[in-house]
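note to self — DONT lose this again. spent like an hour looking for the file last time. sequence + predicted structure for the chain T wanted, 253 res
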Amino acid sequence: MVKTPAEYFADLDLHLSGKDAATAPLSRAEQSFVEKYLGPDALAGIPVITSPESLMQGGAAQAGVQVLPQDTALVPAPLAAAADSRPALVAEEASDVDEAEDQRRLLFSAAEIQLVSVRIAGTSFLLPIMAISEVLRHMPLALLPRAPRHVAGVINLRGRLTPLVHLCMLVSSDASPRYNADSLVVVCPCGGIQIGLIIDKVENIYTVQQQELNWNPETHFGEAAECLYALARIGEHLYGILAPERIGQILCR
């Protein structure tokens, strides 16, 4: 069954949760990203985006993904003390891996899955509704000169460090990075870090039966399969199902 995004989200009553959450220090994944590409002193210079133009909210918001209060600023944990807190970080890392595996296990066992079709550099991919927090319009970002080409930059989204990813660079070997006023950002929680996937447009919402999935994306996408859960056949077309937490792991490793 296929719905337009407007039809699907009109049927839902979703609200971003966690409005009363307290400010938290950077997670292990966020610390790793900051140390590699940003530097802790630069965090204070990134303006907080408190009221982004949101097009829609997804299943991650319904499930209770933490969103910090709108007047919260990024509060970096003391990076120099990271070595002293290694046992806690190991536990958090294991939790992130468990969460990623739980997501895949849930997809693998569900009789049917709701998927959003998104357009990226001329190709359509699918994202599980449960993996999406919200979809936002273009926002100004802080550039990261030391980051790889697939990282467009970073924003402070309601107090959360949120790298924006040129998704086209990860799924196509000949794509060029593009982020302009027409771009959209799909915000996805990925264990210890929240990321924004840059896309061209949201197309449709599909309900796909388990028997229509192929759990070996390498057969069709090769190296790009590192960013995918599986393949889904819809009509005559075969689509890759994106795995946001794997993309988050690529950013932080």
